[in-house]
Amino acid sequence: MKNLVNNLPDHEQDLEKALELLKKVTKGIKWYEDVAKPIPSSKILLYVSTVDAVLGIVADLSESRFEIRDILEEHYTKQYVKNPKLGKKLFVTEYEKLHKPYDKVKNKCFDLLSKLDVDGKIVEKLAA
Fold first, then answer.
1. Exposed site from 12, 43, 51, 53, fewest CB < 10 Å?
2. What's the predicted TM-score (pTM) here?
3. Dihedral, 37, 113, 48, 24 alpha carbons, nearest 10
4. Which of 57, 42, 53 has its CA nearest to residue 112?
5. How many domains does the structure of the chain reveal?
């Protein structure tokens, strides 16, 4: 099982780049807040499209973690057949650990999108 987990793609650098891009968006928003100016609609559109793109990329990167869910769960179920509660707990812990770096970036994206695009209309237009 360790082999399966160890063979998952390493996206650490990609996630760091994504966080750096999100930091730039956050810095831009903060600048407008500091000077007490409304963010121009063109900047909001740029920020929202950037954050939305980062979210999509990170979601694609995390697919490899979703793909092994059933195999991982089966492994823990078989390994802890005499203690299924422990097996389930260990599976959930391992699975959450695999997703944690991706979830961190995704959650930052959702936070920014909810701040920039409260009603979701910009993202909706981008998706159309």
1. 12
2. 0.89
3. 70
4. 53
5. 1
Domain contains 7: no
Quote the DSSP letter at residue 24.
Answer: H
On whether residue 96 sits in a domain, the answer given is yes
Q: Which residues contact 73 (CB under 8 A, 6 or more apart)?
A: 91, 95
Residue 5 lies in a domain: no
Q: Which two tokens stand for residue 116?
A: 């920039």
Its domain, for residue 93, covers: 12-127
Give residue-wise pLDDT tens across range 48-100: 999 999 999 999 999 999 999 999 999 999 999 999 999 999 999 999 999 99
Give the integer Cα–Cα distance in Å for 78 and 28: 51
Taking CA 3 as the corner, what is the angle to CA 95 and CA 99, rounded to the nearest 5 degrees? 20
Residue 27 in any domain: the answer is yes
- 56-64 contacts, C-beta under 8 A, 24 or more apart: 57/14, 57/18, 58/14, 58/15, 58/18, 58/102, 58/105, 58/106, 58/109, 59/102, 59/106, 61/9, 61/11, 61/14, 61/15, 61/102, 62/99, 62/102, 62/106, 64/8, 64/9
